[in-house]
Amino acid sequence: MKRRTLLKAGIGLSPLLPLTGMAALQSGQKNSAQVLVIGAGIAGLAAARQLRDAGSDVIVLEARERTGGRIHTYANWRGPAVDIGASWIHGAGPANPVAKLARKIGARTVTTDAEKAELYNGDGTALSARDEKKIDGIRREVSEAIAEQSRRGPDSSLRKLVYAETDYETRSVLEQRIIDFTLNSNYEHEYSGSTDQLSRLWFDDGGSYAGDEAIFLDGYKVITDSLAAGLDIRLRHEVTAVRYGEKEGVTVETSQGVFTASAVIVTLPLGVLKAGNVRFVPPLPAKKQAAINQLGFGVLNKCCLLFPEAFWNTGLDWLQHLPRTGHAGEWTEWVSFARPTGKPMLMGFNAADVGTRIEGWSDEKIIQSAVSTLSTMFGKPVPAPLDAVITRWKSDPYARGSYSFNAVGSTPAQRDDLAKNISARVFFAGEATEKKYYQTVHGAYQSGLRAADEILKLNLRR
Questions:
Q1: What is the separation, in whole angstroms, between the first and last Cα of the chain?
Q2: Engineering a disulfide at 163: which of 168, 266, 381, 442 sits with its beta carbon 3.0 to 4.6 angstroms away?
Q3: Could you tell me the pTM of the whole model?
């Protein structure tokens, strides 16, 4: 299952609510509520919607000029929208809550198929039947090594485990390329963290829903727009401090003024919590701070290229690339939207260390590298793209990465520590607080409902 989650500085969507920022304050909007929600990503919107529908007075504070958080739909290209944040409903069967919501609002979705895939050699030559057999064998070898050894002994990195169990140092150059490709494609792109950081004990300790992988023809924003409708959302309100030490209530300081409430739900991404830009007074409990420090927060960046026409097999959904020696992890995964949407568009991914490194490149260098890789894959020059959209989620001050992972030294129980409320006044939500469905939109959505329900139940007991 591919968890595709993240934006080029300067690309923004029109705010959902015209009354924001100083205009909102000048119009006389109040700065107090029963509940404040920090963050208008899907976790915050889900929580606010649940509370509002139950009759609570809620204000949502959002630092960006748009709602959605790590869900961001780019709609400047004619035809199907492009999600440069989260893209898929993973396991879009009847039990998935986001799939249920999509069906409820009549969202247009199509599916992609991981089996509609082809692997291309990184040196421009075709893979022989013998090479393909070797690749399949090594992939199985890596998978079996992880399955047999990942829950044994003290924690260490996934790469260390695989290298030891596959006798990496004694393998041929081609076999080493395949092992590194497998670690990057199957694990780093899936979990967002480097295999030097992924915990071999807990990296895959999560759950999933059954069903296809679905994308939105009109973008994921149809979900967040639906949840946001009618809510009091204050855009361009960057939170700088949360004070909860008073006898009653909480105070939240923002770039546009101070807000007070009986309770607050914090849905900041784990990367933002790690950066420490939001001050908590008093400081967060030791267990919660340890969870913030020890859980990982990785990177998965996208480069979306719109071409004048498709030059690839449009019957495929996934194009994989086996990089040449010295270029491990570069442009190993591409998704084609030609079959599901009819648009001649390829989206290339770079995860973990490579995904972080290229954020320092110029747009021109990233596009040139992507086109050069495609030319090598197809053994001929490919046409220049008509347009491109590039993401830099690690550099985004309101994300600091793409999504969380279980790092070496962390434990799944720390997600419960992260989710635990403080004094029934400060509540936490977001994908990183979900023990079972972390890294996913449905996990973030469920965490928001959970935090809202905690508040509603506490109010009933008071």
A1: 43
A2: 168
A3: 0.92
